[in-house]
Design goal:
There is one protein chain. The chain is mostly helical and 146 residues long. The chain is 73% helix and 4% strand. The protein is extended. Helix 2 packs across helix 3 and helix 3 packs antiparallel against helix 4. Among the domains are: 34 residues; 63 residues. It has a two-stranded antiparallel sheet. It has four helices and two strands. The protein starts with a helix and ends with a strand.
Length: 146
């Protein structure tokens, strides 16, 4: 499966490179500048933040909740990166109310609240399920109320 995915990725990248090299509208300097910017953004800013938050979660969050909290944190970061231009109003034109017409800040807060409430629900459900079953004789699980 891994080899098939790598092969598919190589084919897609090859298609993109051929398309970029044969398109008259593509400016190679602009493409290279964009790719360097993405690389710098990812390696010098985004990845250190993800690693630092992961380390903080590993230090301050109980072990049973760490995977759920880490997934919620990564999803929150992805949502923040996508929503930031909308919340900040990048591209908004003052005399055209149809450009970015929604209250994007409120939507972002509601989405993050839903995301973290879901993560909390998963953690609590796992703890409740684990609390209902206790190990009986010879390692067999039995319900705690019996």
């Amino acid at each position: 499966m891994r080899r098939a995915l790598v092969a598919a990725g190589v084919l897609v990248m090859g298609y993109a490179v051929v398309g970029a090299l044969t398109d008259d509208d593509v400016r190679p300097f602009g493409v290279v500048a964009f790719l360097v910017g993405v690389l710098v953004w990812h390696d010098l800013l985004l990845m250190p933040i993800v690693l630092a938050v992961g380390a903080l979660i590993g230090r301050h969050v109980p072990a049973d909740a760490r995977p759920v909290v880490r997934v919620a944190a990564v999803c929150s970061l992805a949502v923040l990166v996508v929503a930031a231009p909308l919340v900040l109003g990048v591209g908004r034109i003052d005399d055209d109310p149809s450009v970015l017409p929604r209250p994007y800040g409120l939507g972002l807060v509601l989405l993050l609240a839903l995301l973290w409430a879901s993560a909390l629900a998963v953690v609590l459900a796992r703890r409740a399920r684990r609390g209902r079953t206790v190990s009986g004789p010879k390692g067999r699980a039995r319900h705690a109320g019996r």
